[in-house]
Amino acid sequence: MKNIAIFASGSGSNARKIMEYFAERNDVSVQIVISNRADAGVLKIAENFGVDSIVIQRRTFYESEDVLSVLNKYEISLIVLAGFLWLVPPYLVEAYQGRIVNIHPALLPKYGGKGMHGIHVHEAVKKANEKESGITIHFVNDHYDEGQIIFQARCQLSPSDAPEDIARKVLQLEHKHYPEIIDQLLHRF
């Protein structure tokens, strides 16, 4: 059995797609959702799927290794970041080297880094008059959005697309590809 932990800070649409994708599988299980926000929509999604969840505090995350103990308890094979906005601390990157993945709503290395998330990314893409955008799924290292790229998918943009239109196009790619790429990665170990 391969066990997944999802780290998320927001509404949880990607987490929902991942839970749906693996819901009927007997070889893969989403075991826990970890959030840094007590009001995150992803917590209700986890509850609806019967998945355990916890809310972590910044101090606990960065100044202790309590999260690592939780992951060990659930025998986690892969950590999936799905809209998790905190930088993963070095102790966690080291313990799960090559087993933490993130999805970014742009074609890295463009439009990545601290503060580049959600609508901020799509506004920057629009401002630069890009003709395409997309998603990047990558391994996580000690820096925002700099880990090795695993997969990218692209979508064409129209000059009339507002940042919200770009966001919709990119989100479709996220929902289509992220669960599939996670599934492929799980076969590596």
Q: Rg to the nearest angstrom?
A: 16 Å
The largest beta-sheet arranges its strands as 3-2-1-4-5-6-7
The tally of beta strands, per DSSP, is 7
Given the structure, what is the number of helices?
7
Largest sheet: 7 strands, mixed
The H-and-E topology, N to C, reads as EHEHEHHEHEHEEH
Helix content: 25-40%
Share of residues in strands = 15-25%
Q: Quick one: overall form?
A: globular
Class by SSE composition:
alpha/beta
Low-confidence sequence ranges: none
Labels describing this entry:
38% helix; 189 residues; single chain; 7 strands
Describe this structure in words.
This protein has 189 residues and is an alpha/beta fold. It is built from seven helices and seven strands. It has a seven-stranded mixed sheet, with helices on one face. α1 runs parallel beside α7 (163-186) and α6 crosses α7. The longest helix has 24 residues, at 163-186.
